[in-house]
Amino acid sequence: MLKEGAFRNPSGCAIVGVIDRSGRKMTGEGMIEAITVMHDRSNGLGGGFAGYGIYPHYKDFYAFHLFYDGKEARQETEAFLNRYFETVYSSQIQTRKVAGVVDEPLIFRYFLAPLPQKLSRSHLDEREYVARCVNRINAQINGAYVFSSGKDMGIFKGVGYPEDVGRFYRLEEYEGYAWTCHGRYPTNTPGWWGGSHPFGLLDFSVVHNGEISSYDANRRYIEMFGYKCTLHTDTEVITYIIDYLVRRQGLTLTEAAHVIAASFWSTIEGKDADAREQEMLLRRMFPSLLITGPFSVILGYTGGLMALGDRLKLRSTVCAEKGDLAFISSEESAIRRVQPDLDRVYSPAGGEPVIYELYQKGGNA
Amino acid sequence: MMDRMYISPAYEVVRDAARCTTCRLCEQQCANGVHAFDVRTGRMTADNGRCVNCHRCVCMCPTHALKIVRSDDVYPENANWDAQTVNEVYRQADSGGVLLSSMGNPKPQPIFWDRLLINASQVTNPSIDPLREPMETRLFLGKRTAKIERDKNGKLKNTLAPGLTLEVPILFSAMSYGSISYNAHACLARAAEELGTYYNTGEGGLHRDFYRYSRNTIVQVASGRFGVFKDYLGKAAAIEIKMGQGAKPGIGGHLPGMKLTADVSETRMIPQGTDAISPAPHHDIYSIEDLRQLVCSLKEATEYRKPVIVKVAAVHNAAAIASGIARSGADIIAIDGYRGGTGAAPTRIRDNVGIPIELALAQVDQRLRDEGIRDEVSLIAGGSIRSSADVVKAIALGADACYIGTAALLALGCHLCRSCHTGLCNWGIATQRPELVARLDPDVGSRRLVNLVTAWKREIQEMMGGMGINSIEALRGNRLMLRGVGLTDRELDILGVRYAGENM
Ligand code: SF4
Ligand code: SF4
Hints:
heterodimer, A: alpha+beta, Glutamine Phosphoribosylpyrophosphate, subunit 1, domain 1, five-stranded antiparallel β-sheet, 18 strands, 30% helix, B: alpha/beta, Alpha-Beta Plaits, TIM Barrel, eight-stranded parallel β-sheet, 15 helices, binds iron/sulfur cluster
């Protein structure tokens, strides 16, 4: 059978996310609790977490998390990293044996700073430089896979039920202001650690539930701009689209949402003149980045979470708030499990982005 | 040896004597003079040798007494020298001339559309019901290379180049006034307006009566420059430079002199009765830089308010040509496959030059993406798009929209007799004879065109819904929605699709 990534791999899933807008930190325990409720939405073939604010001591460095198939891949990768980065600290990621998680690869973490000379000679913006290095490792070094590459954030994922994966990574020992989690129900996979979600690029992480019908239109378009969709998953292409629109084109998250989950023309025509003009323009500028078919995603980024669902609302998303806490989930039950008493619970409309940010970043209470 | 070789007619007119009332309607309907009334016998006769099998008489006969059958007269069987090939040799030995024909290449080369199959969603991904949910077929043609710029309030500025807005991914392709009739043009213009799409004047200029459809008009600038002047360019939503045509790559347009009537001559701005033969190349375009200059001059002449389309025939290096055009300042590329129709073309060229649109389109789209310039241009595929399924497949391969020509003429009554070049079209389409033109009622014709495109639009929506796609934009280039059958690895590779049964 082909290794994952060699074929297109749709999957059904459960997703959940939480942020404390005051910046107060919580361990990964809550997410593990929450995803346990949605056990039946996963099938044991993949689970993962993203935590934000978890590396305060190294917050100025890119935290790379890597899977290695063996020692050789590790040596080759470290040689590569040494050519392009200064490694401030590196170690194997601490894990514990858990019954449901087997066949783990070598898992390493590096805190990196681009070598200033190499960076300036590359004529690239720093983040682009880092993104390209990640791409090169993933595409060119056999048996090595960077699955997390942002600053002061980290992705932890593997094959197994998400709650088991969380315990495997000892997430109760990490503290972050925001977490997302994903339980996977792939309809077609031999289960590869790198293929689990969240999918990350720099500080963006995406968890996604759905199967998009626009996949190949999106993929063939985004690949024009240097992205390589090697995993053939929706999550990967969605992450690249967001990265392209937000980081490279400079759109706001809301604008990006109006590209990805654009309102129908008939809806746009009913909006006020300003919104109408802007949304029409966005649809005309990036028509090939419209995503159709069922999806609900949680995008994690430095300082916030965004929930976005397809415009027909073919996948459920529930948002809830309690004091400074804000939750996003496939099912309300997962939220209630960790926070039975909520100030507000609602389902956003299809295509309507919900953005929760730290107050210090301008987030609303 | 005889001077002229007798060639037995390909078709026979069969009249059921028991049904025929000798009303003589067929006689009056046939501009080719097939039918006649024999006063001595009191019966109708038919001259099979004149019959082009346009079915006008069959359709009009009030008692359904007529049918046209293939003649069973045969030459000695020969798989190499079939009857048509032999007859063409006789014909050329008689006349010493180039064989002329019309409409698209009728030869049995493979039709790749028929070897592509469309996907549908199940279980993991729902289909969408177009009767209950919005199913968007609106799209825009033109450049999409806008820069993100904001005004002082942070609002995005509209930096997009001018383009075309279509409510359906279908436009009527270029057919000139002269090659087709005034009424046929009226039908196309009115239908385009009603459908929210465009028709194309072809290279014969634009009759002043149709200036009022300017918002739905694409005007063509071809190598003959017929009818091109300031008002013409001004009365267009877009300007198309015709570099080539699928039916006759490498040569210019042909309009036989007998179709060049007074009105046509005025619109074309050339003398009445002369053959209008456009030069093979544009004599001011011998290279891609020259094309760029023409694109720019046309834009200059229209104050950069209109998109420019460059139409090319699908030939072997279509991808490289398209890549050059995409960098020439043009906004849209129209690619015309070798099965595209025509009012008149040398038979040998029509049947032997060019390549299938499916392969050319797939290669062009991929090449533009490989070079990262797919946003520089939109792609229109044509020649020959026969049904809504062809449209869906073309868009999934990478087209933005499709041109239809032959299908539109069929809607107006054309029966593909392939004798447009004779100017005696009994359906009032490819003729300038007033009594024949009058047979095509613009009210009826435009309604039939609207019906056709509306029906196709519904079918496109059904197929999109089946795929779980609710915007035509998300179908463009979505090749995973296609699978091939009966294709070789090489063909699949060129089309960029997988074989039926292969996983996503
Ligand atoms: S139109 Fe029909 S009924 Fe009339 S003369 Fe011709 S064959 Fe006979
Ligand atoms: S347009 Fe008229 S002449 Fe031409 S093929 Fe059709 S029916 Fe025949």
